[in-house]
Structure formats: structure tokens, C-alpha cells
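Lab notebook, bench 4. The sequencing result for the construct came back, and we need a structural model before the next group meeting so we can plan mutations. Quick request posted to the team channel:

Model the 3D structure of this chain.
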Amino acid sequence: MTMTQAWLGLLLGGLCAQAGAWDLHGLKPEEVAVWAAPVEGDGPVIAHRADAAMNPASTMKLLTGWAALNRLGPDYRWKTSLLSDAPVEGDALKGDLYWLGGGDPRFDNGDLLSLLHSLRLRGIRRLEGRLLLDKRAFADIGGADDFDEDAGRAFVVGPDAHLVNLKVAWLTFYRDGQGARAALDPPLSGVALQSDLKPGADAPCPDVRRFVAIESDGSRVSVSGSLPAACDGQRAYVNVLDHDAFAGQDFAAMWQALGGEGPLRVERGRAPDGARELAAWQSQPLPAALADINKYSNNTMARTLFLTLGREAAGEGSPRAAAGALRDMLSQRGIADLSALQLENGSGLSRRERVTARLLGEVLLDAARGPYASEFIASLPIAATDGTLKKRFADLGPRLRMKTGTLNDVKALAGYWQAEDGRRLAIVAIVNGPQAKTSAKALDALVSDLVRDYRGGAMRSSAKP
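Done. Here's the predicted structure in C-alpha cell form:
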């Protein structure tokens, strides 16, 4: 594509603005949507196909996070509780224990141990009844349709009121005087580990998965390969069991590690109104979860946050309630035309979700100008530093913070550039089409051009729709 063709393509798509032609770096004009505007200015300076409905992939997480910050506040915390209406006699709880899941997206084994330690501090050691999972926090977890071929992979793990450790167990690999072996952490009673590891030749071990094969059918994990000595102590995660089985078996393993006995079995059940709280755990504030969601593009956590938004805003933890809450907030803020917006689970792990570059850009402007700007911007990956941008934009460095998005036929970037004088540019660039798979370098070059022109003062005029 010549410079003239690129310029004409942008004009036809609705680009108005700066002097000079624009280079799409080989991207097809009809497959790209671009929007950019100064945070401290008026109107966009770039708007190419800004009102086209685009699949945003994981940049959709920005809408969910923005809505959650504004609706829940930065000090929002998830609560996980253990309840019972049974008496305590000696060191025994003489009845059922209810685990009221709060849908904490970051709840891990350390948090579970702290919760159970609080129960042990009450003097309870034996659980003589059932452990009942109270799942009232979420009425409907929704789905992510058309990802059947990815079943079993960690990135498609669904949300759950009793999400623990993102429903993954860790394999720790050892190569010492006892040879080559692996251990499952936590030691789940319903998961069998088969190991066929052999000592391998000396070699560096930047990633143990280069040397071992890991297979799992949910209840059986097999590891095989030749393990170099340098892999001693390295870890890899594996997705096992369903949510209820994982939570119940993890609970039992942690309880036994604290010297506890029981429970008899694990089932679902709703705690009676008169049940008393025996132990509770509160999460870190919302920004901690938001940083994990955006920096590492965690779909499970984003979907959990989306459901939490629905529960707190509309009294129902469901995608329908969450979508309504998000739409209401966009309308209240006067943000863009919502006719193209389609929501499935709020994470971008979706073939259905759609957003316009303009809407996403206006959310970025609102976030940067709002009371929670620092929390929102701090959650984004920092170029050449961390998260999904750790190995990208080395020439621009930490002044660039952007959320990435990747699916089949989708590549996206959305975030901010901050100039040396403190001025900020909000940028959205989305590619939809067969070319997306190989478009990462072109998309990075496109964003770099926007930053270069902004730094050089070329962006002064305002694009009109």
C-alpha cells in the first residue's frame, strides 16, 4: 500500500486531522478502527472507523474495570465467611459448616488458610457434619460461547462464588538426590498424579514446560520428560476438577494441614438465616484485583468482577444484571452511542462482544479525568516493563500504558501515552479480520506513530464524526 492509498483509505473511513499522510503499516483500512484524543483537550484528533462495531477482545476489560471502580469504589472488598447453626462441644462442631462464597477473584490458598486458621482459633478442630457451599453470590455465571476447543485450558476457567486459586493446582518439579519427580500442590484427594520423569542432561531451565509434557483430564494428571537439574523447584499450573470439587478438596487439604479433621463430605446448601459467623476473610481492595485483571489479562477474574458489578448494582450476580449496570453508567456519563455495544461476560473472551473505538476511547477519557484516575491507570500494563506489554514498545517505555487484546481475528490496544510535560493522549486501535493474527507489529507501529505525532505537536485539529 502506498502512502497515498493509506491516506485515502483513512479519509474514506472518517479520519480528519493532522497534516501529512498516515501510514497503516500494511493493515487494511477496512479492518482497522483508530481513535485518539488528548485527555487535557477537546474532541478526538484521530477518528478512523471510530463508530464501527468491533470485537475488542480483552480491551473490553477496561469497560468492566471502569464501571466497577465507579460503582463499587476503590475500597471495595470481597468477603468470604464460614457459618453454622450447630453447637460447638469441646473441639468439635456438631453439625454442618456453611462456606458462604463471596466471589473473590483473588482468593487463593493463603487466604483459605487464614480463614481456616480463624476457625481453629475458636478451638474447633473436628468438623462432624458436612461442608455446604452456599453459592448465593452469583445467580448465573453466564458463558463464553464458541471456545469448546479450548476446554481445560486455564484462560477459559469460568467464574464461581467459591473460586479458589483460579481453580488451578500447581505442579512443583524436583531434581535432587531422589531423582526427578513432581508433587501436586495442594494435594487434592480426587486428583491422581502419574509421573514418568527422568533426570535430564545439564541445561538452563527458563521454563520447565520446555522439558516436560503435562496432560490432565480433570481428575488425572500425567507428567513425563527429562528434567535438568536447573529445573529443581520450578512450577507449572494445571486446571483440574470442577469448581465445587476443587473448593471442597482444597478446603479439606488445608484443614488437615492445620491439624483439623473432617468434614464428612461436601455438598451445596444455603445457610439458614439464624446461622452465626464463625470465621471471615476480607480481600484486598478492588485495585489489587483490577491490576491482575488488566496487567495479565485474566479472563476468569474479569468475569467474576463483571458478576460482582451486577450483584452490587442490581442485586443479582448475573451477566444480564452486570450488562444493565454498565449500560446505565455509560448513559449517566453521556458516553457515546450505545447501539453497537454488545456484552456477553465483560472479559473480552467472547466471539459476541462488540464495542466502538469511540465508546472505548470516551471511557478512557472519563477514567483519566475522574476521581479514580490513578487506580485505573495504575492497573494497565506498562510498556517494556510488566504484564502483557513487558516485551513490547521498548522504544517508548513506561510513559505508555495500554491494555492488550488478542483473539482469533482480533488484535487490540487501548490506553494512554503521557508526554514529558504531563499531557496525556488516550489511544484506541483495533484490528478485526484475517490479518489480525499477524498484525501485532503493524499495530504497535501505528500506536508509535500516534505517540510520535503527539509529542511533535502534529495533533492539533479535532476530528469530526
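The chain has ten helices and 19 strands.
Will bring this to the meeting.
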